[in-house]
Model the fold of this input.
Amino acid sequence: MTKSKSKKYQMFINGRWVDAHHKETLDIINPATSDVLASVPKGSKEDVNAAVEAARSSFAKGVWSRKTPAERAGVLWKLADLLESRLNEFASLESMNQGRSLKFSREADMPVIVDNLRFFAGAARMLEGKAAAEYAGTGTSFIRREPIGVVAGIVPWNYPLLIAVWKLAPALAAGNSIVLKPASYTPLTLLELAKLTEKAGVPAGVLNVVTGTGESVGIPLVEHRQVDMISFTGDTATGKKVMEAAAKGIKRVHLELGGKAPCIMLPDADVFTVADGVTTAGFWNSGQDCTAATRLFVPKEHHDAVVRKMVELTKKNFRLGNPLKPSTDIGPLISFRHRERVAGYVKAGVQEGAKIAVGGKEPAGREFSRGAFFEPTIMTGAMQHHRICREEIFGPVIAVQTYTDLDQAIKDANDVPYGLSASVWGKDIRTCMKVANELQFGTVWINDHGILTSEMPHGGFKQSGFGKDLSMYSLDEYTNVKHVYVDMLGPGEKSWHGAVHKVGK
Done:
């Protein structure tokens, strides 16, 4: 590892940049080169306490929660403008820290993040409830949407800034204060965004960023008695632990967990469209995406043609390399440890009877020798009971399964613990709609896979968690609903009191 030109960061607590209480640090590694990009504080329980106390104090004082929706919207919009003005800088840093290609960060990731911020700036002024009315006949009832209080947001390493914004934008739009914990691998762009929140006008204590490991920061944050809500994105096993810890304090919980997305090709689907769409959705971000296309169900008669086209497109369209090179389509996995995990699944698939059609190994060459690279992989002969068809690999691996009966294919697609996303491919829209209706997943795309937009919700069923990111639905996660009743009858006993005590003589 090389530490030359590495930058030292601090945590952001109560509007100040501070070192860890115990002065410990973590090295942040470039997964493409193994060089040390920066060091960040390794926070502890003491740092979590300071951040939560700052968030609690800011909320109690109303420095943000009592601002008008228009005022909060203005700050979020300014934050979006500031980020957009430095888009290339953020895209480069994200690529170096996380490993995704620069063109993906610059052309897809960052513009979407800016749009998310602007959407929630508008959403801050559009909190909805039932119309006021005299439902009881004796007074007026209306609904208030109120912030929950202190939110703890735990961010994964696969989309470090995007998912951080999915948490902080609706939380702030609703008037909450928030403490964010970035993944220990990928904290850099969130720390840089925290600098912009100061310039945008977010008051001290409203947004806090504490860096460290899950053990040193994540657990104390989840268990903190002054935290009112936990928003966690990550693997299902950790999500279960978060939910268990939250239960002790009856905290609000929002979970976006693992996925094992099926793609069902109907007999009338276009071969190129399926092959192109599924490989793209399976290999972007090196397959490190909970919505990634991981299982393709192909009619038996189309298997050979589809696989040939997928192999051809994989070799042509997905060039491995240094993420900062313009020619690179996909970069490394997040770490060597994670590469071992992905390679282990490929090996298990072969042992269970599947075959490697393309990829399946570490690439050769000096360019790849210092990074956690793994070739985009297509495996054929996959069966429903194989681990590669049932467990989340979180790497560039697509398993191809054949079917002769569509109902059985739908059953097999649903027969996993996850329920985050799926897709259907075909020309007969009525059949596509029938299949989409029967798939037990939070998002089902037809003739595409992976499209997300600020206006539409994102979230899963089953062990993929509950609650929604994006859209107006996400504000349900970050607000309390209060019913307020105003009596319209005036002084004197009410007729309904007779059900409790005698009315009159």
User: Anything to note?
Assistant: The chain is about 35% helix and 20% strand. Residues 102-123 form the longest helix (22 residues). The mean pLDDT is 95.
